[in-house]
What does this fold into?
Amino acid sequence: MDSILEQKPRHETNLVDAESIVIRFSGDSGDGMQLTGSQFTDTAAFLGNDISTFPEFPAEIRAPIGTTAGVSGFQVHFGSKEIFTPGDEYDVLVAMNAAALKVDLPRLKKGGIIITNIAGFDKKNLGLAGYPDGANPLEDGTVDNYTVHKIDVTKLTKDCLAGTTLGMKEIERSKNMFVLGLLFWMFDEPMDYTISFINEKFAKKPEIAEANVKTLKAGWNYGDHTEIFTTRYKVSAATLPKGVYRSISGNHATAIGLVAASELTGLPLFLGSYPITPASDVLHELSKYKTSNVKTFQAEDEIAAICAAIGASYAGGLGVTTTSGPGMALKTEAIGLSTILEIPLLIVNIQRGGPSTGLPTKTEQSDLMQAMYGRHGEGPLPVVAACSPADCFDTVLEGARIAVEHMTPVIVLTDGYIANGAEPWRFPAAADLKPIKVTFASENNNPGGTFMPYKRDEKLSRPWVKPGTPGLMHRIGGLEKQNETGNVSYDAKNHEVMTKLRAQKIEKIADYIPAIAPDSGKSSGKLAVLGWGSTSGSIKTAVRELIAEGHDVAHIHLRHINPFPKNLGELLSAYDQILIPEMNCGQLLNLIRAKYLLPAIGYSKVQGLPFTTAELKNKILEILK
It folds into this structure.
């Protein structure tokens, strides 16, 4: 170990310029792969690389250590070009144990680099990973087509921290910093950002901070002075639009978007939420913004969470509730209440694999029909969907605008892939953010008579009244109301009138949203690939590559799903064929076929994993041929 820590003359290495690199950090949940990956990502973003990440967590809370079910992975794609996906295959695989290698080796490029912790390949770990007795993939020819670096990371970390006051458990937890330091050396990236992070994170535990920094530097020095490494890689900064950037995850962008919506509306923000994977981080993040007129309420259940948010909106605030699919099911009755109240409310559904508990840490797009129709009675609501981590900010703002300006609950869809993934986000200028107009009624809309709480404006929206406004006392509630007066009504024809008015109001929102245009490609041609949500990056990459190869294909991506943009049917009709890839069994496909009577083709993937670029390219080429 002395040779690693001593500053000896470094050996000669070949520095190779690379346009982009995909690294997969893989190990047990306790190996710190998420932290390692996120710190590498933040450093790459700090240096100006474009990035896209894909954290992947075990579905079991306490999966047995050393098993394939317990593998936790973090994938980062960084480069000097525009990047829209975490990458189909890895250039570098960091495998902390045998199970990690077994799970992720199939997606490592032939000739790719494997960095292993050989302590994770002993007899016990090989058995837990399901390798036959005596078979070691590092020795039986399994990895002969790769560049393999076998390092006893565990021993080197123990040697590095020998003599410290830390216990063996704390010492072993530091081994991910050794790997991170080695990767920083290999890709010519500085350690300064991570050292600052460590010192800040463990400010109250200086011995832990010192151990992590020491191990990080040891990893760097191991690469610098060990002659098994002959090549380093340099990835230049990407050419991005000028501005100030930061790396941001979808959940963090959602939280900041909600704070921005509060600022733009001038309304206090109230989040009523119940913890659920993968939505809990929004609650955690917003709890930090108390000084920005944000109140967070961790309710005892999903029903209490949404009902509290409805109460906040009734009182004149911006009510928000966040959840995932199972939580949406529990909130259904209260969503119906907010629908008949016609009150602003943001309902953020961060989708995951279902039904029931399903795959709680995996991604899916299977709640679209639930968002469209998952309510009792005729209760259509606006539905908007984010397409990437950074886009969560803009989509939340759009959802808030619709909710407040059209007096309606709005469902905002993201998913686990977007929520946990990260990409560069350019800080918007406040002046560039579209204003959100808030109007509270202050005068009687029925001169000479009683105030009418359901008298509608040109948007078919009813007035929003703060409780206690003089002269505007009125009744709202879950029972059907008489048109305009708001009196309780059981009249059959009045119920039909009110039902249709509520639906017409949602349809009329289409007059206030922009026309849709292709994201890539021409506005007519042989094939359009229509997507929504997190399929955006894979579709964009596949379509742009195929256009460059001379194929007649275009990409159209939806943010507004209910109502659709007014020109969507006309645009889709300009193509010979339409392909709709979804991480469900064809939910948008059914909506498009039903509304526009177009023979669209579906392409489904329901594996808890996003589409790869290769999968989409192959499907597009199959259709074009």
